[in-house]
Design brief:
CATH topology of the largest domain in chain A: Rossmann fold
Number of strands of chain B: 2
Distance between the termini of chain B: 19 Å
Oligomer: heterodimer
Radius of gyration of chain B: 21 Å
Number of strands of chain A: 12
Number of helices of chain A: 12
Organism (chain B): Streptomyces olindensis
Main location (chain B): membrane
Structural class of chain B: mainly alpha
Protein name (chain B): ABC transporter permease
Number of domains of chain B: 1
Strand content of chain A: 15-25%
Keywords (chain B): Cell inner membrane, Cell membrane, Membrane, Transmembrane, Transmembrane helix, Transport
CATH architecture of chain B: Orthogonal Bundle
Membrane topology (chain B): Multi-pass membrane protein
CATH architecture of the largest domain in chain A: 3-Layer(aba) Sandwich
Largest interface: A-B, 63 and 65 residues
Number of domains of chain A: 2
Strand order of the largest sheet of chain A: 2-1-3-4-5-11
Structural class of chain A: alpha/beta
Radius of gyration of chain A: 23 Å
Strand order of the largest sheet of chain B: 1-2
Chain lengths: 344, 337
């Protein structure tokens, strides 16, 4: 009895399995999105493959980075493979991607490490197989674990907004809130330290009245700012790790009717963020150039494939202070320039 | 218990029915569909890219699924009892940080640190089991709470720092040995051995039959003299110990103790269990099915990557596969009734 009733269900299962694979076939068929699009360009100059591994593939910063790599790969006639972690901090996902790309025979890998230390053993294994590994945006720890680093000088990015904020408060006594990234993440630490340096205060200075981690997230930035205002209502300068955190802070300030008299500075230069500078929500931001990092990275791998010459050391991909309220003695560009060069 | 007496029935007077019966049983095994999907996927990727069908690549795929695979064995046990464990990845992450810090900074002998990690993870399992059984609380809620507890402890204890410079024995399972022309990691063997061991325990021991009985109907199991309370707590504890082994495998694979690890592994392990044909309602399924399930995920990830398909499509396909697998389970349940 039970056997006869089972038979149809097994057929159903087989049908489902077939359906699954058919689906996979369709999904992987020609002309299905970015992967195969860039793949078709490999017909040109042999079969040099370049891998790009980002922290996530949803953050606009990395989307722009991928775009830069795709353009550059097309121009150079090489095949680009991309992968990303599932979330910021997904080291295991990045390790898997490195292994798969090495198995696919890439000549070089460009990676924005999610965990600067944890990724190192996997990078070393790839390098041992003759793969050029370049870190983009975020350095590894130690920095020498990769062949080269193409990134924003985050200390300088922080310094620029620090100097700007100092000039903008014009000697008024400052009460500073810092909305930071997360403990132990080098990018966040460097921007924070750079800001303090530019502003001319030491760590632990009494003018820094509140410091909170936001993970660079808008909602967490808002919560952090609300708590900071609770702690010290007189805050008049807010340093933020990135523009989402800055916009979160703006929302919190606006709820208290303080958005006009508090100076928010940030780092990133995303299009949403730059627009917020234009709208006066953020006073100034340090703009960075992810597209350039990736494009330069692809070029470096192509050079390595052609001449065997490995890129090395640190390449600064540049940072520009964007504001519409320029301060004397602080070099900056306006938001028209910023919006032309923004990412996301 | 009577269900296990099917073998003698083959000696029935209708001997000519024997062959179709075997064929039917093969077809109706819950692992048949997943296995067919896996094989078809392998055929497809072999035709699509030359780098797929190599010993080295298969060794790589197994190496890539060993951590989630080991977690999924524990997850299968719990799901067979009609439970669920959302805390497995977080418990593993905590175990790995305990092992890594104790050995690297606490200067404990590596083997003692590993044992301590197993005890910690087993302890979490035991606690889950006791809360589920004794209070009693729904497994979903207990393990949701434990997920947060273990996650927080991981970050508190690690001070958000990745632990590096681990002593050799901790990463020994990540080392490879040559098998023919292929390098295989020792950790892959551990995972395969665990799958075989638990497959045997579930299919051929009284304990295994009791686990199925418990999942089918706790009340009937109790009335049949099964000590369901001890059994439930035992299952969660065994699962916890398996998470401890997964913690060691994780360390050996990445070479570091990483507090960020395992954040999606709870759902990934449930995905593997479901893809392998195990029913979320308990009582139906097998760990070998789960092995096929993790391989399906691993093969799609690897194959699509080799083809140069962006990673977001891997997630998309996994999602569709899960829904298909659960649909098939539901429909076949209705038909069986």
């Amino acid at each position: 009895m039970s056997r006869t009733t089972h038979l149809p269900s097994s057929l159903l299962r087989a049908a489902a399995a077939t359906g699954v694979v058919t689906l996979a076939l369709t999904a992987c068929g020609p002309g299905s999105g970015a992967g195969s699009g860039s793949g078709s360009s490999s017909a040109g100059s042999g079969d040099v493959k370049v891998g790009l591994i980002t922290k996530t593939d949803t953050n606009p910063f990395f989307v722009k980075m991928k775009e830069g790599a795709e353009k550059s790969a097309k121009a150079e006639g090489v095949k680009l493979m991309t992968a990303a972690g599932k979330f910021d901090g997904d080291n295991a996902g990045q390790v898997t991607a490195i292994e798969n790309m090495v198995a696919a025979g890439v000549k070089g890998i460009l990676i924005t490490p999610s965990d600067s230390k944890a990724i190192v053993p996997a990078i070393e294994k790839a390098k041992a197989k003759g793969v050029l590994v370049i870190a983009l945006d975020t350095p590894t720890e130690p920095e020498s674990a990769v062949d080269a680093l193409f990134a924003t000088d985050n200390l300088k990015a922080g310094e620029l907004i620090g100097e700007y904020a100092k000039a903008a408060v014009k000697g008024k006594s400052a009460k500073i809130a810092t909305l930071d990234l997360a403990p132990g993440v080098s990018v966040g630490v460097q921007r924070h330290d750079g800001f303090l340096k530019g502003f001319g205060v030491e760590k632990g200075d009494p003018s820094i009245v509140c410091s909170q981690d936001t993970g660079g997230d808008q909602a967490k930035g808002q919560t952090a700012m609300e708590n900071c205002l609770q702690k010290e209502p007189g805050i008049n300068v807010v340093y933020t790790i990135n523009e989402p955190a800055a916009l979160g802070a703006y929302t919190a300030l606006k709820a208290k009717g303080r958005e006009k008299d508090v100076l928010i500075v940030s780092v990133d230069g995303g299009c949403t963020g730059t627009q917020a500078v234009k709208d006066g929500k953020i006073a100034a931001t340090s703009q960075q150039y992810p597209l350039k990092m990736a494009a330069e990275g692809v070029k470096a791998v192509v050079t390595y494939a052609k001449d065997g010459k490995k890129a090395s050391g640190y390449t600064d991909t540049g940072v520009t202070l964007i504001t519409d309220k320029a301060q004397d003695g602080v070099t900056s560009k306006d938001t028209a320039y910023g919006l032309e060069n923004c990412w996301g | 218990m009577t269900a296990t007496s099917t073998p003698p029935s083959t000696s029935s007077p209708y001997a000519e029915l024997k062959a179709p019966t075997t064929a039917r049983r093969l077809l109706t095994a819950p692992t048949t569909g997943p296995l067919a999907a896996l094989l078809l996927a392998c055929v497809f990727f072999s035709l699509s890219t030359d780098q797929f069908l190599t010993g080295g690549n298969f060794s790589l795929i197994i190496q890539q699924v060993m951590v989630v695979g080991t977690l999924a064995i524990g997850q299968t046990l719990i799901i067979l009892t009609a439970g669920i464990d959302l805390s497995c990845g977080a418990v593993m992450a905590f175990g790995s940080i305990v092992i890594a810090r104790m050995a690297a900074e606490g200067s404990l002998p590596p083997l003692v640190a590993i044992a301590l990690g197993l005890v910690v993870c087993g302890g979490f399992g035991l606690l889950n089991g006791v809360l589920v059984q004794k209070i009693p609380l729904p497994p979903f809620i207990v393990t949701l709470g434990m997920l947060n507890v273990a996650f927080a402890l991981t970050h508190i204890y690690s001070e958000e720092q990745t632990v590096t410079n681990l002593p050799g024995p901790l990463t020994a399972l990540g080392q490879t040995f040559p098998l023919g022309y292929t390098d295989v990691t020792y950790g892959s063997l551990v995972t395969i051995a665990l799958f075989l061991l638990l497959a045997y325990a579930l299919s051929s021991t009284g304990w295994g039959r009791h686990v199925y009985a418990l999942g089918n109907s706790p009340e009937a199991a109790r009335l049949n003299g099964i000590r369901t309370s001890r059994l439930t707590i035992g299952v969660y504890t065994v699962a916890g110990l398996l998470y401890g082994i997964a913690a060691l495998l994780l360390i050996s694979r990445t070479g570091v103790g990483d507090p960020q690890a395992g954040q999606t592994d709870n759902l990934d392990s449930i995905t593997a269990v479901v893809l392998g044909g195990t029913s979320l309602f308990g009582g139906r399924g097998s760990v070998l099915g789960t092995f096929i399930g993790v391989l399906i995920v691993g093969v799609f990830r690897n194959g699509l990557q080799l083809m140069g398909v962006a990673s977001i499509y891997q997630t998309l396909i996994t999602g569709v596969l899960v829904i298909l697998a659960v649909t098939v389970d539901q429909i076949s349940r209705k038909k069986a009734r």
